[in-house]
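Exercise 4. Each item below gives a protein and its sequence. For each, produce the structure-token representation.

Item: Phospho-2-dehydro-3-deoxyheptonate aldolase (Caenimonas aquaedulcis).
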Amino acid sequence: MTHPGPDRHIADQHIARETALPTPRELLEELPCSDTQAVHIAKARETVRRILRGEDPRLLVVVGPCSIHEPASAIEYARRLKTLGAQLGDALFPVMRVYFEKPRTRMGWKGLIYDPTLDGEGDIGEGLRTARRILLECARLGVPAASEILDLVTPQYYAELLSWGAIGARTVESPLHRQMASALSAPLGFKNATNGSVSVAIDAIHVAAQSHIFPSISLEGRAIVVTTTGNPDAHLVLRGANGGPNYDEASVASAAKALADSGLTPRLLVDCSHGNSSKDYRRQPEVARDVARQLAAGSRTIAGVLLESHLVEGRQDITAGRAGLTYGQSVTDGCIGWDSTVDVLQALAAAVRQARAA
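Answer:
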């Protein structure tokens, strides 16, 4: 006897539960992006592109929490960043880190989309709604937003609200992420691999720039085949490695040569965290100072920096959901606090101005 669906004796042996999600279209209609917000996002993307091409002399600064876990502190951070950005806007173009998905080496909290209540319940539908609300509020405030693209399905629910995106060191080699990147509308940074390999990220940039045909889901939630035109705005992010940093002048020059030898524009971003800070958030200002020195000396290779920053420095563990958590402090990687963030951005702005004057 044959069955119209998977036979229970051979299929779904490790599925404990299935929960329906709204389709991407349903969520976009529930939480729509206004024309004004869309114009802001489009303009921010174009500014990022101009910086990457060297047509805008400002420094791109992707700055914000390692991950978003509470909407209130995220919006407060966005408001502060808007004020600071207005003060430094002649030299810097700040884009807020609004990261909702966290790659885990083993296990741990996987991010706001996967566990919005921080208690393991896994209400992904509500996580997607919360993430979209935060991005819409950033757009309403006029604060460009950035996020790492980790899952292959969830970008359909929010990616049109991003002004910059990233493919992380753990997924830079993934063929699926490379072809997905070819479909994304925002400029996209590929980080060097965890072992420090820059060539892996350069390969990814080339792959993402090409046309691809692959299966995906539509806004209506149907299985479809997507044909992409390729993303021409992919670029390199130096994030250090397990074996040491790569933000120094020699490493930056080596990466620029590798880009040029591969036929790519020798412009890149430097991540002040992760391997470049030896996973010590307190060393991020040190990395930023070295980048500032390179900029003041006339470097045309460094187009931007990444910083992990929150309202309160350091990090904390999740022990009982949201209960007892310090407001505005990271629950994943440690971050520099707001006062330190202001100091770092002011120093970077001064370096940009010095180079411009010279």
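Check: The mean pLDDT is 95.
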